[in-house]
């Protein structure tokens, strides 16, 4: 597989409504220490320098995210694409907008705005190393219960669980096949699930706690504190 970043595409999915954050706007537009979550996500992709193509999937009819994307100095090809009503539909729209000669596709949640470059590097390296699908993951600190309503039905061994993040990386043909094969998108929350349902192995790569998904107001407070602290540190280092 080519080492050329021009053969790598990143799809940033940002077409969600952000209802749980409660700001009345798409989550990717929400500001965190003065920058939108989308800009912070793009900063991470740019810093990683893994990809030659970025496609950002935005809510249909959006103009504000599009304006940010048009103005963003990514140094690579970048374009906005209209999303769909579910995450898999949004990913499919992003896939269709990538050049045909891309052989590695990363799918990244805009909401994981502080994902460090090393996560991108590990995921791409694992795909280049022969994995068809790669997910970054971290150990879970909570005990996780399986429930039926409010009755606990099982307690999986915590040592066997990983909280999975993005970017998830795929051999492009595998991701295309997975999206083409799966019809019922009802409970699909990530792309690896689609690949798993084909019976194709999915490989784990090291994730990072900083790749957490900004979902709730508490997550946003944490993200803000992290960005401000990193900024203060950078100033001190100058
Ligand atoms: O809803 P959830 O937090 O799982 O969404 C994960 C990511 O998928 C978010 O970045 C969101 O913007 C994106 N998404 C999308 N299109 C949808 C629903 C979610 O791009 N229809």
Model description:
The protein has one domain: Spore Coat Polysaccharide Biosynthesis Protein SpsA, Chain A, CATH 3.90.550. The strands form 3 sheets. Strands 1, 4, 5, 6, 7, 10, 11 and 12 form an 8-stranded mixed sheet that branches. Strands 2-3 form a two-stranded antiparallel sheet. The chain contains 7 helices and 12 strands. The longest helix is centred in the C-terminal third of the chain and has 21 residues, at 217-237. The chain is 34% helix and 22% strand. α5 (172-181) crosses α6. The N and C termini lie far apart (40 Å). The chain is of the alpha/beta class and 238 residues long. The chain binds cytidine-5'-monophosphate. The site of cytidine-5'-monophosphate (C5P) has 18 residues, from α3.
List keywords for this structure.
binds cytidine-5'-monophosphate, alpha/beta, Spore Coat Polysaccharide Biosynthesis Protein SpsA, Chain A, single chain, 8-stranded mixed β-sheet
Radius of gyration: 18 Å
β-sheet strand percentage = 15-25%
**How many helical elements?**
7
The hetero molecules present are: cytidine-5'-monophosphate
**Annotated CATH homologous superfamily:** Spore Coat Polysaccharide Biosynthesis Protein SpsA, Chain A
Q: Could you give the order of the helices and strands?
A: EEEHEHEHEHEEEEEHHEH
Helix content: 25-40%
CATH topology: Spore Coat Polysaccharide Biosynthesis Protein SpsA, Chain A
Q: At CATH's second level, what is the architecture?
A: Alpha-Beta Complex
**In whole angstroms, how far apart are the ends?**
40 Å
């Amino acid at each position: 597989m080519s080492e050329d970043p021009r053969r790598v595409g990143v799809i940033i999915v940002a077409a969600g409504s952000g209802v749980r954050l409660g700001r009345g706007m798409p989550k990717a537009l929400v500001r965190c220490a003065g920058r939108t979550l989308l800009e912070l996500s793009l900063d991470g992709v740019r810093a990683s320098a893994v990809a030659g193509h970025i496609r950002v999937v935005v809510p249909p009819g959006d103009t504000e995210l599009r304006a940010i994307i048009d103005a963003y100095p990514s140094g690579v090809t970048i374009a906005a694409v209209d999303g769909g009503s579910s995450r898999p539909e949004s990913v499919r729209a992003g896939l269709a907008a990538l050049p045909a000669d891309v052989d590695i596709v990363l799918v990244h949640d805009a909401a994981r705005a502080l994902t460090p470059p090393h996560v991108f590097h590990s995921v791409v390296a694992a795909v280049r190393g022969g994995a068809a699908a790669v997910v970054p993951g971290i150990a879970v600190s909570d005990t996780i219960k399986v429930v039926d309503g409010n009755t606990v039905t099982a307690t999986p061994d915590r040592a066997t669980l990983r909280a999975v993040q993005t970017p998830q990386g795929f051999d492009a043909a595998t991701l295309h096949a997975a999206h083409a094969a799966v019809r019922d998108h009802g409970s699909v929350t990530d792309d690896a699930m689609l690949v798993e349902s084909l019976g194709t192995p999915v490989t784990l790569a090291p994730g990072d706690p900083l790749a957490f998904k900004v979902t709730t107001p508490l997550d946003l407070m944490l993200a803000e504190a992290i960005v401000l602290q990193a900024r203060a540190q950078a100033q001190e280092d100058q």
